[in-house]
Amino acid sequence: MIHRVSNSELYTPEDLKDHSGVAFVIMDDSCEKVLIQNHIKIGKWTIPAGKVRPGSSLEETIVEEAFEEAGLIVKRVTFLKDRMFVYKKNGVIVNTHSHVFRVLEYDGVPQNKEPHKHSEQLFMEINDIYKLPDLSDVTRLWLGIPDD
Question: What is the per-residue pLDDT across 42-69, written as a single tens digit (0 to 9) for each?
Answer without folding.
Answer: 899 999 999 999 999 999 999 999 999 9
